[in-house]
Design brief:
By secondary structure, this protein is mostly beta strands. It is built from 1 helix and 24 strands.
Amino acid sequence: MTATIARMQRANRGTQFRAYRLHGDDPAQLDPFMGIDHAWMSAPTFPPHPHAGFSAVTYLFLDSETGIANRDSKGNSTLIEPGGLHWTAAGRGVVHEENPAVLGSTTHLLQIFVNLPESRQTDAPFALTLKPQDVPLVQRPGARVRVPLGSFDGVSSPLTPPTEVTLLDVTLDDGAELELPIPAGQRAFFMPVFGSAEIDGQRFGLEDLGAPILPTATDATTHRLVGKPGGAKVAVFIGTPLHQPVLSNGPMAFASRDNLAAAAAAYHRGDMGSL
């Protein structure tokens, strides 16, 4: 197996927000994902802000002390409970914000940015929500796999998002092994949440800020994930690359420069609404 290590940076904002941020050196490196923040938040951190051209996805780990209050300029207002997921397909543009439901209590989450197919980047925005009790669970000796997006071992998430991706929340005991099949033409990468693990003998963990990436293969492949001493939690991301340009001004990203400019102008005119 050939793997590369994506650049992972740590950011701190006092004790109210801290995050490990995973972004590829090249936008194609994580395609169709655009970046992931693994974060802890206990106070309002991000004021209302726009997104356009891609999807912003929030997944809360079960150890969160409180949920996330999510609302957007299209009238959606959702409590994301610990263990639940919320998908905002920004399309041609939406304003949204997320804050801990109980200020001072800590949320533990993944903020996942997923590209939209170019044909859907100017669609009307919409939101999808998955309650924690509706997330499928696969149990194997020493391993527990939650499936908030996509499928694993014959079970599938009930969500049908505009970009087909898989997110697995994997918990491994010390020495536990789990086989991970990757479909032909899809890419997978692994983000450590706590502890350390091995994928096909390559060790990674928070102490070295490493995130192994498996290259896309023309044939389906199977890989072995192993928990190291102390156990581990690993987020597994799988998807089919979109192979399209990514032109971004920060909160917006499109395959077309004209669409990017149009979305920025629409936001400044107030066409995306407000909170």
